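Incident review: delayed structure delivery

Summary: a single-chain prediction request sat in the queue longer than the usual turnaround. Root cause was a stuck worker, restarted by the on-call engineer. No data loss occurred. The affected request and its eventual output are reproduced below so the record is complete for anyone auditing the incident later.

Affected input:
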Amino acid sequence: MARRTTRPARRTPGVPAPSGSTERDPWTHDRTWTGDARSAACCAALLCGLLLALDAATGRLGGWRALLWLALGVALFAALTPPRVAAHGTTLVSRGPVRVRSVRLDRLVAVRRRDGIAPRLVLRDADGGEVLLDPEVLVVNPAIWRLVAEGARTSVATGSLLCGATALRRLADRIDRETAEGVFRASGLE
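Output delivered after worker restart:
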């Protein structure tokens, strides 16, 4: 009797299974999140360590001050850690430190780009779900971008995507350009 060698994908709590997908479809996660979280932890630990060392050197370190510096380090870590982005079928999920947000990619009604110090892409679906994510997540994760692009095409075909096709087209052009540059660099044709 043959043993089963594949395990079903883990379900994300609070997020319904997307239509047209099975439980065996794997979740696609942001590949760069671990490094970004590690950098956030290093920055928070460094600041906390420096503040504790400075207080100890001046002789003002006490229990309450140490607790204050540790709380500041935890707050800095929470602020610097980016949301963890994952996609599965027609669902895109963003897990922040406080809440989990999800959006149905096949029912998008709006896609907006917020420019500024930290550009963000805002995806909104017909069910009221909204996800804010860094466009760089889609650039460095082609599997997540593929799912977002497929969902956007479905939304355009059904007529639910009312605004945002231009923002997605610009992002697609950027991803295509960077992919081509990467191929040229790898092949030495730069």
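Verification: Confidence is low (pLDDT under 50) at residues 1-22.
Action items: add queue-age alerting; document worker restart procedure.
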